Amino acid sequence: MDSQAKPAQPGRLSEPAQNSETVTRYSYYALSVLTFVNFLNYIDRQALPAVAPAMQRDLGLTDTELGAMEAALLLSFTVLAPLFGRLGDRYSRTRLMAIAAVVWSVATGLIAYVDRWPMLPPKMQLYVPFFGLIALSSVALGLCSVRALVGVGESSYSTITPTLIADYFPLKRRATALGVFQAAIPMGFALGYVLGAVLAHYFGWRIAFMVVGLPGLVVSIFVWRLQEPKRGEHDNAADYRDAGAETMPRQSWWRTTRQIFLTRDWLLSTAGYTALTFVLGAFATWATLMLARDKHMSETAAAVTLGIVSLVAGAAGTFGGGWIADRVVAKRKNGYFLVCAASSLLGVIPALMALVTHRPVFFLPAIFFAVVLLFTNNAPFHAILVNSVPPAIRASAMALNIVVIHACGDVISRFGVGKLSDSLSEGNAKFIGGFARLLGIDPALEHLTAALLVVPAGLLVSALFFLWGARKHSG
Questions:
Q1: Do residues 170 and 20 make contact, with C-beta atoms less than 8 angstroms apart?
Q2: How far apart, in whole angstroms, are the C-alpha atoms of residue 166 and residue 186?
Q3: Inter-axis angle of helices 264-293 and 360-376, to 10 degrees?
Q4: What is the per-residue pLDDT for 130?
Q5: Is the Cβ–Cβ distance between 314 and 200 less than 8 Å?
Q6: Which of 13, 297, 337, 361 sits at 20 to 30 Å (Cα–Cα) from 327?
Q7: Residues forming a β-bridge with 134
Q8: Residue 474: predicted pLDDT
Q9: Does a structural domain hold residue 277?
Q10: Torsions phi, psi of 358, nearest 5?
Q11: Can you say whether residue 297 is alpha, beta or left, with left for phi > 0 and alpha for psi between -120 and 50 degrees?
């Protein structure tokens, strides 16, 4: 194992283990710890959308300001990901991730006190390209700054963890292992919705943030104590020598970045997942408010319903996607791409039905099937990603992927849907409003639902990129 007290030695690729198909008990233990922390990560992230209605009433926040808070998290996450990717290729990954868990957990708890700080930034207006002039109150700016601190911690963990899992598990078990890890996302989403809504209902939204932030401080100790696996433990170094893998760790950041962007599978899969991330961000931030406002559910019922749907449908999609993908790829080498393309394309229909229907007997099953298909992509996509580049630069590849999918994906949708909703309520955005009317949605009364029509469009774009990748990969 690599020393945890010294920088790792990524200059050499490890030769594969004598029995590269063997999975030790410790690998399963490490996967359990990493998955549990990812679970807590998404609870912390999803607590804000769950308590958003109560926060809006208490603090007087607009949809635009709420979207700006989510965008702040993703922007810091995105900007710092390359730094942590570079560090993850050189230093102890377990240490970096343990520190990250502490940072985002503390920052989550601080959200409860921001509006009571004696010193807050003055309110301001700023021009955002494509969105125009944006007005943010002093409280909203303070919340954005703390939410950005949550993103600092998450950028390290999300960048580095898949590279560790790739070193704990052999190639033929990798998508399944990543599926287990990624299943923590819908489970965290689910408990974030439920915990946030229930705690806010009984104790107030401030207590909700303090409670969900605490467990991350405890489990960070277990992450700190994880053994660091050898880089490329289960990979054949010969598979990467043609790409100059042995010299990559000594390359400049620019040359490494160029190498990654010129990797076809990385580029096409990242493009497809960027569109999917756009959709996931819009759903995660605005689904609770849409059900409460436009589908006339109570705020608590909306959050609990989404929690149950995210838990059952999201876990089924993530586990199922990994299981199916490993079996399809055994028969077709473009199997990972095909599973991703199919799930994105099939998701268009239930996503559209969830928006245009108004009876629970129709829109709740539609949301369920849409979430199943949204999360089916997780495991096969990450398998494409970690398999597309040599082990020595996987953390950098993950970091660049994070930059692209968030900067061009949910940073835009989390903020943009809020801005579009406010614009539709004021009678603007005529094209979207006209299309909404064709589907039976009144953009003046259901402006948030009308704004969420970008979701099925994003799924269609995602499917097209994954189909392109499947076609290129089949040759």
A1: yes
A2: 21
A3: 160
A4: 59
A5: no
A6: 13
A7: 126
A8: 54
A9: yes
A10: -125, 0
A11: beta
pLDDT at 187: 78
The dihedral built from the CA positions of residue 264, 270, 275 and 279, taken in this order, carries a sign that is positive
For residue 452, the SS3 value is coil
Spatial neighbors of 301 by CB under 8 A, at least 6 apart, are none
Q: What's the token pair of residue 254?
A: 């620019």
Does residue 11 fall inside a structural domain? no
Which residues are within 8 A (CB) of 329 and not within 5 positions of it... i.e. 6 or more apart? 175, 335, 336, 380, 383
pTM: 0.69
Residue 4 lies in a domain: no
Tally helices (H) and strands (E) across the chain.
Answer: 19, 2
**CATH number of the CATH domain containing 345:** 1.20.1250.20
127-138 residue pLDDT tens: 666 566 777 888
Contact 172, 326 (CB under 8 A): yes
**Given this model, what pLDDT does residue 21 score?**
63
HEC secondary structure over 322-342: HHHHHHHHCCCCCHHHHHHHH
Rounded to whole angstroms, the Cα distance separating 393 from 87 reads 11
More confident residue, 329 or 452: 452
As a whole number of angstroms, the distance between CA 444 and CA 75 comes to 30
Lowest mean pLDDT across 41-50, 207-216, 288-297: 41-50
- Strand, coil or helix: what is 19? coil
HSE-CB for 277 with a 13 A CA cutoff:
22
SS3 (DSSP) at 162: helix
Domain count for the chain, please give it.
1
Give the distance from CA 6 to its chain's centroid. 31
